[in-house]
Each structure stands twice: as structure tokens, then as C-alpha cells.
Amino acid sequence: LTPVFRDGLFLANAAGRFTAGTLIAGVEQLMETLVGWTRPYQFDPHAVEVGFGLKDSRLPGWRLDLGGDHALVLRGRIDRVDLCRVAADAALVVIVDYKSSARELDAVKLHHGLELQLLAYLGALSQLPDPKGEFGVARLLPAGVFYVSLKGGAKGGDNRVEAQDDPQTLRTEGYQHRGRFDGGQLERFDNRGVAKGDQFRFSKNKDGEFSKRGNEALPAEAFGALLKQVEDFLRRYGQAIYAGDARVAPYRKGTETACDFCDYRPICRFDPWTEPYRVLRPPSKPSDAAPAGKTSARKKP
Questions:
Q1: pLDDT for the residue 269
Q2: What predicted TM-score, i.e. pTM, was given to this entire model?
């Protein structure tokens, strides 16, 4: 693609050629790492650029009944779909989303209903009325969602000797898949029987239970509850749209605000000097999903 991308932008000068070489080398490292992980990972890549509800897609959108003859229909395009057959007519399904830089699911935003895209995509696939034509099975069972960085970006060592001591480990850390998955299916994600993962972020205590920290594997019931909570958020947002709720209530999480990269900031009437942000606070209990009906909202002055 180098000669044709934006009319040869990468070949226009030395800086462009260097950038192209760096990108190619990064993709090669990613591919090498992914191939190395295929043995413990029991899922197989099945499809890429999977659209649903779009004009050019074969799959329907996810229709959520809102009551009162109203509905919310979700549409989108999924980077990669992996499958693991568990029965003649059923397969576990995983969604992979590639990112240009490192990204992870933010537990606080997820708790407040602001990190819904990947989990909503998984819900859309698991709710397909007839997935057999596209995926070869009658049922898709949701198993996990992950972001994968195309750049890697492993942490450096404290010194040169430490950084060069195990370069393979440092490199794979940068491509670790970040998201959430059903810990009840751990053997299908990593069949080595280890207590700590490298492709996926999980950690087990000596008693065999998942650790509360540094762990993205959820017990099966908790993972199912998380998917249900995402569906509840979507349905609630759809009902608010039909109810005409168009309040301007940007969030604040630490130093980050919803206004930081908002395209409508120049014309928005929200004034942080006179109006409070909607502060996102961590969940009071160690779970990703907030109880139904208890999302925080800023009241009008």
C-alpha cells in the first residue's frame, strides 16, 4: 500500500519512508506474536470487517424493543470475529477490535454506561436470529471482547540490561489483548494451565480463584450480568431519546472531561465555570456493572 496511500505520501521524503518502514515492521511483529499465541488460544479467526445493520451487510441490525411501539436498532462494523465450536450447532464468539495505540476498557466508564461499543457488538452477534449462513452454527455464545494495539508499546525496563534480558516478553506485553472475557471458558483462551496470562490479562490466586486486581477474566455469571447491563443501558438511552431528553451533561473523570475532544465544543452552551460536570465515580463494589436505574446524572440548576 505504500506507493498508493494518499498518492504516495509515504514515498515523498525520507521521513515518510522511515514512517512506512516503522509501520511495516510493527505489523510484522504483531503478526509474529499472534501466530505464536495460536497454540494455547483455542479460537480461530472466522471473519473480518463484519458489518451488521449496514446497507452493504448481510447481517441485520440489533433491534431492541423499547415499548410503546418504539425500537432502537444498532448497526456497526466489527474488525475481527473469532469462533470456538463447543457443539455441533453452537460456538463461542470473541470480538477483536484493532487500535492504533494501546487501549483498555475503563471500568469506571463501563460502570456509568460510557464504554458500550465492544460489548454491544458482542450482544448484537449473540442475538442474531439466524447466524448459520454467516458463521456456520445456529447459536453464538458470547465469550469475550478485546482491544489489540497495532503499535505494541511495551513497558521499558529499569535499565538497558533488564530491557534486553527478555525482549520477547517485553514485546508480547505490548500486544496483550485488553478487554473482558468469560473466565469460565479460560481453558479455551489459554490451555497451558498457568496462573497468569500473557495474551490475555488474567491472574489467579493460590486457591485458584481469580485475583481482584490485574484481572480481566470474569466469573461466568458476572460476565453474563455485564452483557445484560450493557443491554439495559442501551434500552434506557433509547427510551430517553424518544422522551426528548437532550440534556447537556458532560462527564468528568479525574482530569479528563467529555469536552476535551468534543466537535461541538465551540457552539455548546455548557459553561464549566458556572455548571458542574457529571463526576464519574468508581463503583462501590468490585464489579464492572452498575445496578439498573442508578447511573449518575447531573441535575439542571
A1: 85
A2: 0.85
